[in-house]
Amino acid sequence: MSHEQSVKKIVLAYSGGLDTSIILRWLQNNYKCEIVTFTANIGQGKDIEMAREKAKFMGAKEVYVENLCEEFVRDFVFPMLRANTLYEGTYMLGTPIARPLIAKRQIEIAEETGADAVAHGATSKGNDQLRFELSYYALKPDIKIIAPWREWNLKSRTSLMDYAKKHHITVPMDKCGATPFSVDANMLHVSSEGKVLEYPEVQAAEYIWSNSISPEEAPDEPTVLDIDFENGDPVSIDGERLSPAGILLKLNELGSMNGIGRLDLVENRFVGLKNRGLYETPGGTILHIAHRAIESITLDREMGHLKDELMPRYAKLIYNGFWFAPEREMLQSAIDFSQYAVSGTVTMKLYKGNALVVSRKSVNSLFSADWVTFEDSSLNDYNDKDATGFIKLNALRLRLKKILQA
Amino acid sequence: MSHEQSVKKIVLAYSGGLDTSIILRWLQNNYKCEIVTFTANIGQGKDIEMAREKAKFMGAKEVYVENLCEEFVRDFVFPMLRANTLYEGTYMLGTPIARPLIAKRQIEIAEETGADAVAHGATSKGNDQLRFELSYYALKPDIKIIAPWREWNLKSRTSLMDYAKKHHITVPMDKCGATPFSVDANMLHVSSEGKVLEYPEVQAAEYIWSNSISPEEAPDEPTVLDIDFENGDPVSIDGERLSPAGILLKLNELGSMNGIGRLDLVENRFVGLKNRGLYETPGGTILHIAHRAIESITLDREMGHLKDELMPRYAKLIYNGFWFAPEREMLQSAIDFSQYAVSGTVTMKLYKGNALVVSRKSVNSLFSADWVTFEDSSLNDYNDKDATGFIKLNALRLRLKKILQA
Amino acid sequence: MSHEQSVKKIVLAYSGGLDTSIILRWLQNNYKCEIVTFTANIGQGKDIEMAREKAKFMGAKEVYVENLCEEFVRDFVFPMLRANTLYEGTYMLGTPIARPLIAKRQIEIAEETGADAVAHGATSKGNDQLRFELSYYALKPDIKIIAPWREWNLKSRTSLMDYAKKHHITVPMDKCGATPFSVDANMLHVSSEGKVLEYPEVQAAEYIWSNSISPEEAPDEPTVLDIDFENGDPVSIDGERLSPAGILLKLNELGSMNGIGRLDLVENRFVGLKNRGLYETPGGTILHIAHRAIESITLDREMGHLKDELMPRYAKLIYNGFWFAPEREMLQSAIDFSQYAVSGTVTMKLYKGNALVVSRKSVNSLFSADWVTFEDSSLNDYNDKDATGFIKLNALRLRLKKILQA
Amino acid sequence: MSHEQSVKKIVLAYSGGLDTSIILRWLQNNYKCEIVTFTANIGQGKDIEMAREKAKFMGAKEVYVENLCEEFVRDFVFPMLRANTLYEGTYMLGTPIARPLIAKRQIEIAEETGADAVAHGATSKGNDQLRFELSYYALKPDIKIIAPWREWNLKSRTSLMDYAKKHHITVPMDKCGATPFSVDANMLHVSSEGKVLEYPEVQAAEYIWSNSISPEEAPDEPTVLDIDFENGDPVSIDGERLSPAGILLKLNELGSMNGIGRLDLVENRFVGLKNRGLYETPGGTILHIAHRAIESITLDREMGHLKDELMPRYAKLIYNGFWFAPEREMLQSAIDFSQYAVSGTVTMKLYKGNALVVSRKSVNSLFSADWVTFEDSSLNDYNDKDATGFIKLNALRLRLKKILQA
Q: Which is a Pfam family this sequence falls into (chains A, B, C, D) (predicted)?
């Protein structure tokens, strides 16, 4: 991969920010070809339309700006939540789950516009490059990929700023100096990492948390809410049916107001380095806890345990960028199979960082109290002696082992 | 298993409470043999010595009362915490981890006193009978086991009370009526379940939580503390070296004061029923979170991921009563192997139900900032082109699949 | 479960042999109710029609005799083969895979005939009782189950013979004495176990192998054949399209003639005992090897590895009797997902106990020679430097660990 | 990695063959530094001493020739066999298990001789480069690695021959043309792959199999032998105690004579390509089957099942080159833990490609016949009613599911 590769037209994942603007210009200068920009609204909360103007102004031949919020939540976030997904026990994968969607749409635009290359702004030591590029390759194996951060020699902040100045790219006043850390935002989460945060022994300053009120500052009164699930996905809040993005939007609002979903962790990157990240996932955290609660009364024990054992592997696939790999789809088919009866209502209490299950109910409930109600029927034949037999046969191999191998 | 089985001497796991007192008398009446009582102090916080007096008064031939707190934490709780153990994603296994210790000591006492049988007070639809009896059988395969709740016909509270009255067993005033739920307590947790709690759709009343202040009532000021780990186990708090039980005691105090570790869940029993439980695990919850944090900077990625994938199975073994099974020991050997470098300090903030990691540090830290410091050495040869190769070979099978099976 | 339970009508899984004939009479005598017999032809190779006559003669009210061979192979054997299923590394599960089908049809007949109970002839220390009864319960939870071998007191061969004589049941001459071992047969395998075989240190006599020629006696000339697969299932032999049962029949013939598929092993039963079994699975063994071969060129690596890791658990579920459990179906959905491109032709050579893959081809082949043919296209950009990057990033965590934790 | 990197002294893994002789010369010419050659005898069956002479003649400064056969079998092959290791269900990993040993000794020699670099002759699309280099890096993270096949431009056979001629390297007559496939050999196996074999649809010619007689040519009389195991490892053959290498040598002789252990497969490489390989592993195949047989009577069921589920992952680690990674060692600790009672004798029959278990016995046998012998003791309390209870509680969740979610 060198810039000498001959390229006809490039679709750039363009945020409208300084870095991808520099990339846009750099691509124009180095590849001497048409650039199509693509800006996805996945809930990052910035003025997306500004990206359109900026791209046009800088000479992009075709400019795509699209709202993918519903697709993002429906086809990426919710399927992932069905698996109770946590990477390394804690991380809800807000960034990794968004990249495949952007990559997929970028490839589609390449096909629509006859582009033969795609480009992105991810750096060379991170995981995002993997999430973009593995998706590109899986969907269109002959695509040419340009990763400027691995190609150019603008390695320092200063050289970047010089390049911007030299090529007439507007640098916002607050970007003249280096930002103290980098941020990624979408409907599921806001992440902060890098630079000042690269010291796991140093507490993160409060100002870094941009997407949620701190538990300390959260209201003294709890918020109580009902979430309805159907076949493993949330469908309404307090009885109001909402679209997938509507659900997440509402829960983000309630969660962030109550200090829910902050996480400060050190995680393992696919490239072999450890990374310290600060994640704010207010709505996702509520949904994760609520989903486990509705599963707790509706999901068969062994399906649940199988899900628990497969989950770390499923999470790792998403984290590493293998959303469009066949083994992720294979796991998804098992996970989705398990969700047919995962319907019902969970009542949650949100209070100063806590998202607590207060109650759960379902017409599909497998809870044993229902069994007790069959007390007089032939069904309820739980017999005390049955337990003796169950224990004795479970113990048999242990006893034999002790006798015969002592 | 019927009371006609001939028994010479029985070691009874005796709490000193009403139920096991009735069992003590019932064993005397039905088995017409000597009874040895064994009461273990594992931090349940009751007057253990009272059990001694009561057992003697009721005619037990030999009376064992022992403090097993240190052994409990050192040999059971800490090994389990090394695995980041959570049953069904959330439950810290406070009850299941205590039963094997009691069973083990009971079997030792049977051997010391020449008893040929053991008895316990666990009921016939729960998991505790499995945890006791699988342990008994694994350790002494020819032991006779008496489980009165599966044998007698004292099925209702009334018949129990009648039996007590008829056989001159003192019934505490507050036990005349049925308790509204049952409680199990030890150093790791207090659990509440049964009766009024058997309705997962009904919120648990505040009074049921006996071991912790609610988040709402917890102090407005956070508590910040340091926990030092060595080879996967906590060894000191705020610089003060403490015994295993000392560590847990201190953290229980700080945790319960700050509303940490409450859990209201529905779990799956081994016998096939679902169960609603309320668990309070203040110190254990803090240790769980802190242990993950110290692992996050000291544990190799792939060892960590392997641990995560094995954990649900390990948790299930403990939950189901297989602590003394060889497959639990086999998993433990892998888990313990992984902990040799898991040493260092985690700073936590406790605040109204939140146990938050503030910072972590270790001389064994694998965090990449250390890598960066090798900037000028031959070691730091992370090359941007390396990432290209890494991505391309990871993508190769995906590209081939798309090309050849499209 | 005692014979005092009141029962209206019983569907008995009836083989027509001596044991189930005694059971038929015993049920009539003890339950004083109507008996429906059900005899399934699943390729056991006996005169099934004789069972019909015998059942009528003995007074069965309704007599079902059905050929289930196609359903057996299509819906049970082939789905299992898709997973490359081997229990404990070697056993192809010929007996366990047949029981759920018989149980399913028995339950359907119970519903058709208004029966409230089912009965089977499996003994009390084996696994077959689990396979029958877990299937019964999963499909019809209120069914009454009668397992005569766990109920009656005909514990010795002599008492059985006495009972037969006393109740006018014809005992074939060769059954007067005890058979030296017991046999189960169906389209997938013939198993022999028990009695003389219960000494794992004693070599099995040649006469015990009833379903195959020994390698020594097999022809000196190899048999070569082609097997075509579509979506993971075999569909034709040497170009001739056959039904599922037709495929297995043909391969059984070729396999047994060439001494293929004998297995002498000790396996672990669910009830906690070890069991020595002799299995002959000629056609199944050929299909197992051929299926792996067609997967070897058509299945994505990571789907294949996931299948390999899930397989032992899937095999255990079938062995233990959980075919109709939701977790088996959940695994099946993942396994079946993986098979969409597993189509093509495998050429095998059969020779004196060896079933060898000679060649395999597929229009879906992922084999890299195809990659090489892209030599001149932009697709084939495998770059030697890519390997360097791939290796270096895979090594990074290992290097850091050695440097930082040495 | 370019030849401009400054290098002081290189330890080359040197076979003595043409390719590594060319590499030796190329390193001298391009790196202008001292070369140390290292030739390991791991049973490849060539004249190792010739390599010494050749290296000296070509001007190597230091020449190491060492017999590592015992270490290879004891510390690499046997630990792997304890896990019943098969990659992708069939491959015994003869090549991958040898590379880490060579790499380890190479690194030790680098330290002994003050070398700062190592070099090997593995090509750029294979897995061996990973096995060498991941081992180098894991053991000595600051080592410089030279992989000539990824550096030079001698891409065709012709250019290699030209280079040899130009630099006065003797080319054996039979190497003037390209060999039709490439071979790797050690005590565990001989592999053949590449070139004419790169067509999975073409049957391999008989002459390619160099390490074993074909089943057809094998003797008409079977060979019967006893193998004794202690703690999971074989220790004697027919009662004669042998060293690890002695065991494997003897079994290779018996196995290859009887046509045992041939395998023709397509496997998945770590780099993303599929590979067709022909493997001959006569002794290893016998040991694999015998080890499973001794485990079948001595290993606890659940330890065995856990091993079976972990095995594919363990095999993949070895295949991919992660022998010295901590997660491989972590798995090994669990595997080794399980072997403490895996001792006893297996009798095998070898006949024309078949390696059949004839009998197995052990003082640690857990086989249930031993249980039967306790018939009169209190131990043998297997009760027919126990099975009823065992079944009913295993069925409970299935019944509840059917009732409540139908």
A: Arginosuc_syn_C
